[in-house]
């Protein structure tokens, strides 16, 4: 393989022999999978893509299509590989490479999924594809990896949703924060972010009540009190228990002030 010069590659690339192009592309492809050299795979892909139109309707089209999808996957061009593997599955539903293609299509979108603060289009696609794979291949070769990826992406979406709700708290929009955090809890009942969400919902409502006019304070404190109870019932030894109890003590003082005003 190392003896093949650029001149020889260009000669095959510009030539008319489909067989020569396929054989050389396959050599580059296999060599790149072994040593991870991106340049070899790019050359292989160029040759495969050049001959693929002439393969349509022929048995060789299946392997060429898979090589193109897998080649893009190998070099990290995941949006392309995700799409190419999808096309492969639709075009060759009886292929013995179907399971691998289904997993790698999902994994391509998993690899393309950005950090939680960015747009999560690829994340939603990856979750959908991973779930399809898990349902279709419950004893599949890639089941454990797919399950792990699914859990990771689900957590990423939960984190994004939680951080959006928590942002209202940072911005001191206390009523909006309590509402958004409550919505997060209802939408994600098993989330690992729920303890923090319960606490910050309570804290937001407490501050909202504390800053209210006296005529509105008691009703808003009562809601904060119900949020306090929600937190301590679920997390009696939670991370925020001391803070929650301190706010509860401040609430008692506010109630006393209100009682005196009403006498």
UniProtKB/TrEMBL annotation:
Domain Outer membrane lipoprotein BamD-like residues, every copy: 25-179
Alphabetical list of InterPro entries matching this protein: BamD, BamD-like, TPR-like_helical_dom_sf
Keyword Signal: yes
Domain of life assignment: Bacteria
Coiled coil location: none
Upper taxonomic lineage: Bacteria, Pseudomonadati, Bacteroidota, Flavobacteriia, Flavobacteriales
Sorted UniProt keywords: Cell outer membrane, Membrane, Signal
Name under which the protein is recorded: Outer membrane protein assembly factor BamD
Organism field: Psychroflexus planctonicus
